[in-house]
Amino acid sequence: MDNAWEELLSEHVQEPLQKDATSTAAIFCSPNRSSLQQVDKLFFCDTPSMDPCQSNFELLKFRSLVYKDSISKTGQVKSSRDLDVYFLYTPFPGSTLDIIENIISARKNSVSNSFELQWHFVLDWAETDHRQWLNYLHSYFQELKERNLFPPSEKCATIWCINTDSIYSLLKSSTLWHTHHIDFIQQSLRVFCLFENCSLIYASLSKEDDKQFYRDLFRDAYENTPLPIEMASFTKLVIPHRSDTRELIKTLDEDFHIPANLDAAFFEKYKEVLPLGGYACDIASPTSDSISPNIHDLLDEQYQLSKIYSKLSKSKV
After folding, report:
1. Please, where are the H alpha helices in the chain?
2. For residue 13, is it within any domain?
């Protein structure tokens, strides 16, 4: 097992960058593997300059990029930046974080210049787990804070809600879902982002123009360029951190209750209001300990076994 870990870490530790370069790690987390595959295809595979995608992965996928000196929108020359991208399949609170924690630690030690860490959480309107979204986010944010994996930067996290065109299909195909449910989800996510100081993006991926818009957004976030505010449609939202207010959130529904803090009642209320559906087994709420404490070891073991199996399969060819 130790050899497997050493091999994994060696794959993700690189030589120190040139003196004027900045190193950034962007980590995309989602409870749905297919959602991560779509994000990978959107940002890194639909442009000719990027390597072809290999979409199949179990718990972790990695790609390394270098953006050379570029000209910003204001005409300023930006120095080259090194970008490590990790796609982390996170089906349960805390799962697979042991893997990324060791990789980040090793990456920091290999960087001679500044190192930035950006977290991206991917939720998917095309999936059926809407009732679990807040508990999923809360659980991971708490876990990251306990592990000191949230950097002090004010712009360290972005929540992406992709495939927002599925909202129309959801309203048309179900008698349980209504527009007030859609508004309630948006308001709840905005409250979460307000308290946790992160950005919220609703992404419709049906048109090529939209795809390019979101690629530009990711590039802006990666280069620490201020994001534009977009609130024209409930399928296309860009709400940067510190741009939202309680008053703006209430414009969707003035009766929506904004709590004094993100307490357990807030998360329970979210699940109560939305129609039943999603996972066969709910993700644990902040006050529940129903998740097995051995889930981390189980996923860790599965990951290492998959690496060993892959090596054995290749040796037999």
Report:
1. 2-12, 33-44, 97-110, 133-146, 166-173, 179-196, 208-222, 246-249, 264-273, 295-316
2. no
Q: How far apart are CA 64 and CA 83, in angstroms?
A: 6
- Distance (Å, whole) CA 202 – CA 180: 17
User: Which domain does 45 fall in, by range?
Assistant: 23-316
pLDDT digits (tens, 9 = 90+) for 14-33: 444 444 556 788 899 999 99
Residue 45 parent element (H or E): none
User: CA 15 to CA 195: how far, in whole Å?
Assistant: 38
Strands 60-67 and 115-124: unpaired
Q: Which two tokens stand for residue 130?
A: 């809407």
Distance CA 51, CA 46 (A): 9
How far apart (Å, rounded) are the C-alpha atoms in residues 313 and 10? 21
Number of domains the chain contains:
1
17 assigned to some structural domain: no
14 falls within a domain: no
pLDDT in tens, 202-247: 999 888 888 888 888 888 777 767 788 888 788 899 999 889 999 9
- What's the predicted TM-score (pTM) here? 0.77
- Is 15 a domain residue? no
